[in-house]
Design goal:
This protein is mainly alpha-helical. It starts with a helix and ends with a helix. The longest helix is centred in the middle third of the chain and has 30 residues.
Length: 171
């Protein structure tokens, strides 16, 4: 039994890295620099984001002050997916960037509101005790970096979890 367990464990340790290597290779192929151009493939994870961000900038240029609202954004993304023939984008509901999604939905007013939240988190960190300060900086780092490629406030759980995390840090 011990020998069989050892051999199966050894076999798994060989098979798992091979599977991991194929996934790494797949991610590398998908993120190849040619997929990063706006005119290439909107049906990859990176390509869809690049296309969506380009469309968001066009929406912002057209409605910079008050935006087009959440329903307008959904309609725009759906229509855009038809224009570029992207089934991947047709299934998405936001621009996969929180600042762009907020700006498209609410214009400058919404963008200023989101920036005010970030400034408030920085102010809390600056005025906090040493341990709390670094916890808040860590939370702010996670918040800012995750919002680059996702629109976390478009998911029901995120505002609650962010609020709870800030509350726990301040306890």
């Amino acid at each position: 039994f011990i020998v069989i367990s050892f051999l199966s464990g050894s076999l798994l340790s060989i098979v798992k890295p091979i599977n991991a290597l194929s996934k790494i290779n797949q991610a590398y192929v998908e993120s190849n620099i040619k997929n990063l151009t706006v005119t290439d493939n909107p049906n990859t994870s990176i390509g869809a984001r690049i296309f969506l961000w380009a469309d968001a900038l066009e929406a912002i240029k057209a409605h910079p002050i008050i935006g087009i609202g959440g329903e307008g954004r959904l309609n725009r993304i759906h229509e855009y997916s038809k224009v570029i023939n992207s089934p991947t984008i047709s299934g998405l509901g936001h621009y996969h960037n929180q600042l762009l999604t907020t700006f498209v939905d609410y214009g400058l007013f919404g963008l200023f509101g989101h920036i005010a939240l970030i400034i408030a988190m920085i102010a809390i960190a600056l005025n906090a005790l040493n341990e709390t300060k670094w916890q808040m900086y860590g939370l702010l780092f996670v918040h800012l970096t995750s919002n680059i490629t996702n629109a976390n406030f478009e998911h029901n759980f995120y505002p609650l979890m962010l609020s709870m995390a800030v509350g726990i840090i301040l306890l």
